[in-house]
From TrEMBL, chains A, B:
Annotated organism of origin: Aegilops tauschii subsp. strangulata (Goatgrass)
EC number: 2.6.1.2
Similarity remark: Belongs to the class-I pyridoxal-phosphate-dependent aminotransferase family. Alanine aminotransferase subfamily.
Needed cofactors: pyridoxal 5'-phosphate
Function: Transfer of C3 units between the cytosol of mesophyll and bundle sheath cells to maintain a nitrogen-carbon balance in the C4-dicarboxylic pathway.
Protein name: Alanine aminotransferase 2
Length: 551, 551
């Protein structure tokens, strides 16, 4: 009984706190609950009791859901949400009793984590890292026999020379080792054809902490809004919620291959402003996550112009810049676009995020990445530095790897050829996998799927029968979550329901990575097909003239 | 003129925002400004103009100090603050023109960063790391010739077996690799003699992100307070400010060797509560930073009892657990103390922070660490996991190193002897350096210094002449900041002013690490002495009977 009261009271307090600290959520909610029922309206009595309980002295725990930060309680992160927890439980079950389930392994297609599915690290990068981790190897003659190319050894020397005291075990400058930042800047300049400076690089433990830093800087209260795509990578909605801001969605247009239209941006900004929201920044993910589209240059120009006119910071998530799978598209950084339009550092605050976790390298476990920060005045830059300094610095292996991906072996280097074989092998295989999965999805009844032009995901749309939607409702789950759960239980394949990324009202999707190794793709496709066909057979809406008598 | 107005307006807005979002700061301010004059009282006109400027459309930058998150603007982080920036500028000057300054190198005694000052990494740890970074080495016969012991190779194999797919390049579970967490838990159990579970370990990129996670969880608004020592490591004041909470200070007693008295805790909690603050947690740093004291077991018991009675979370910063320099003191974890008192997981929420950056290893650049989270209910634990999951996971090298420091070579292992020689060499040298510096400080006029029983710092007190305090005021600086700046300019030695850590009103200190290599200590001491004596000669208060005629 007491437990029941506490639970009710908890939900009431959580709801009332949400009301007190956040304006009405933008509709649709960016990351709806997977299966948790929405809290019932708070009754004054329940709220009073919860408060009385949480402040009474002895007997109650010092920390409960009633008394934690409601911003923590509120946000969702579906990429590692309930469906993944369920998959982990099934995996443990499989481990204990391999015969207990209708499949023999869990296939994690929920997250862009290539090495977990068998992708091998790029040899050159790992050789350099191992030498930097244990520089004593560099002094030994046997080392040459162990390493595939002399330029890995040479590169390790060069990197160590850039690190004060060659101390890879020391905290660096809070933006990262200056010499490595300069190397990254040179890589950016070579990519874009425009100047870049190491002073503008902030090395971070992956792109996520960089995104948090910018949100922390820009968001003062729930009156500050950040424009984000829908569907979006839920890092953004989570970070905005954690920092107490307002998520201002703009919709990507599924009909035009997840097109990003400036008219839609303008409409959403105006609407947010009419509600008293100060829109601070625009998030663009290019190539798109979860949608896989690659923006056209003309489109990017319009977006830059829009940010300039509206006084917005452009937060460019460009972590998939090396993942392009179609001939007719190319990656252009937003900085290159802005500079090519004649805009200088004085015209437009622009932050570009990059990560060692994506691309052909996929080194998620190294937690390396950087942001290139341009167009902020010196005072504000100093504050960004201060925020970076509280965590002292990012990990040095990640810093080194960030410099390597922006300055890989070049023509003429001993390792160049073998490096390119590895690199192109990965990229072209990803392209084939994307195509095979897309075609498989499109071949099925009730599924349509845009092409993955880039990134690591497909985001197929489920045209679910009414009967399936009814079954989901009866189970207390969102229809796409219900589908994903049934898929997991039947096949061991883990995908993320579209509701975790946000989707147009009344539409249902799921995100599926293209990362299982190529030799597994046919089996995955046939397992998927078999499940889907059975699912449709179970739920297919029966038209009237086919209805059995008596229905 | 416009710039002047903007600056005035900026300060006015910042001040008014501070007023609006935070209650009166606890006195004394935990981290007072180094040299920035306090903002003048906002005039309504200036505030109005600033607001008008910041919201006017075109022409003004989208982001300025007026429009960033005031919590970012407010917090200070002296360990990498203005004095360090000044030192970095001097270093560049030295680099360009080695003869321009009265010293030939900058000695960074501002930060616990041992490898930056020449401490060598522990061989066993780095051997294992390099093998895990490039597992292909493990398959080659030449590898044995390169590595000093076969157990490093064996350990690398064991670690890879714990990582799913041996993929050190994959994101792990958001708490860290389960097998590594289990190994850490076994190390904790061996240390404490009480059970520990890998399920309670959250691996993080150093201890700082773990502290932020707990602050994010616990702080709902400025009405939530966190009890922190004064002096304190400014990570705490910075994190509390960034998360919008109230810093509730308790004073360590310098007279009794920086004693932590429960009466003082009680007094401060009661006072905070009388102001409407809900005190959520107590931060204890043991061994102390910046103070170097090691708590006695009896004292720790009283602290645990206090937290239990007052319903506080105990946040135990135990990152210096291996840095103990005196015979009569020993490290006891708070969990061991609590369990030895009979308190179980149900009695007391307790978080212990550990890091690979400290101890004899000092691997700051690896950004490894963990928190052991006990005494929270499952609902709340789930929320902590959710916060961890937004950044996906901590870096795998840091995770591996965390497991190594909690499970170093043991008696009987091939590498044990050489490992112990390295380990003990570092610890005993640190103890000698601490003693030499302490004695040197205590030998000087106007300085008193407690013993460093542990950690990596001394926190000497400056008994400054009135004339020196006057000179500091004339220069617009805090007296200890003025002293630190003069020291830097005369000797190249970088210390952090006591005001960066907080100190009892009217007292002045500085924090100086004990980390310069041992062969440099005599020269540092003589440079320091020479500076200090000149400083005292310049400012010594002249007593009346010695006053020159006419003064």
């Amino acid at each position: 009984m007491r437990r029941f009261l506490t639970d009710r009271a908890r939900r009431a307090v959580a709801a009332s706190l949400r009301g007190a600290t956040r304006p009405a959520a933008p509709s649709p909610a960016p990351a709806a609950a997977l299966s948790r029922p929405s809290p019932s309206a708070p009754s004054a009595m329940a709220a009073y009791m919860a408060r009385a309980m949480s402040t009474s002295a002895a007997g109650t725990p010092p920390v409960s859901l009633d008394t934690i930060n409601p911003k923590v309680l509120e946000f969702k992160y579906a990429v590692r949400g309930e469906i993944v927890t369920h998959a982990q439980n099934l995996e443990q079950e499989l481990h204990k009793n391999p015969e207990s389930l209708p499949f023999d392994e869990i296939l994690y297609c929920n997250i862009g984590n290539p090495h977990s599915l068998g992708q091998q690290p790029v040899t050159f990068f790992r050789e350099v890292l191992s030498l930097c981790d244990h520089p004593a190897l560099l002094d030994k003659s046997e080392t040459h026999a162990l390493y595939s190319s002399s330029d890995a050894i040479e590169r390790a020397w060069q990197i160590l020379e850039k690190i004060p005291g060659r101390a890879t075990g020391a905290y660096s400058h809070s933006q990262g080792v200056k010499g490595l930042r300069d190397e990254i800047a040179a890589g950016i300049a070579a990519r874009d054809g425009f100047h870049a400076s190491g002073d503008n690089i902030f090395l971070t433990d992956g792109a996520s902490p960089a995104v948090h830093m910018m949100m922390q800087l820009l968001i003062r209260s729930e009156k500050d809004g950040i424009l984000c795509p829908l569907p979006q990578y839920p890092l953004y909605s989570a970070s905005i919620a954690l920092h107490g801001g307002s998520f201002v969605p703009y919709f990507l247009d599924e009909e035009t291959g997840w097109g990003l239209e400036v008219d839609e941006l303008k409409k959403q900004v105006d609407e947010a402003r009419s509600k008293g929201i100060t829109v601070r920044a625009l998030v663009v993910i290019n190539p798109g996550n979860p949608t896989g589209q690659v923006l056209a240059e003309e489109n990017q120009k319009k977006i830059v112009e829009f940010c300039k006119n509206e006084g917005l910071v452009l937060l460019a998530d460009e972590v998939y810049q090396e993942n392009i799978y179609v001939e007719d598209k190319q990656f252009h950084s937003f900085k290159k676009i802005a500079r090519s339009m004649g805009y200088t550092d004085d015209d437009l605050p622009l932050v570009s995020f990059q990560s060692v976790s994506k691309g052909y390298y996929g080194e998620c476990g190294k937690r390396g990445g950087y942001m290139e920060v341009t167009g902020f005045n010196a005072d504000v830059r100093e504050q960004i530095y201060k925020v970076a300094s509280v965590n002292l610095c990012s990990n040095i292996s990640g810093q080194i790897l960030s410099s390597l991906i922006m300055n890989p072996p070049k023509v003429g280097d001993e390792s160049y050829e073998s490096f390119m074989v590895e690199r192109d092998g990965i990229i072209s295989s990803l392209a084939r996998r994307a195509k095979a999965l897309e075609e498989a999805f499109n071949s099925l009844e009730g599924i349509t799927c845009n092409k993955a032009e880039g990134a690591m995901y497909l985001f197929p749309r489920l045209h679910l029968p009414q009967k399936a939607i009814g079954a989901a409702q009866a189970a207390g789950a969102a229809p796409d979550a219900y589908y994903a759960l049934r898929l997991l239980q039947a096949t061991g394949i883990v995908v993320v329901p579209g509701s975790g990324f946000g989707q147009a009202p009344g539409t249902y999707h799921f995100r599926c990575t293209i990362l299982p190794q190529e030799d597994k793709i046919p089996a995955i496709i046939s397992r998927f097909k078999e499940f889907h066909e059975k699912f449709m057979d179970e739920f297919r809406d029966v038209s009237r003239d086919e209805a059995p008598t008596g229905a």
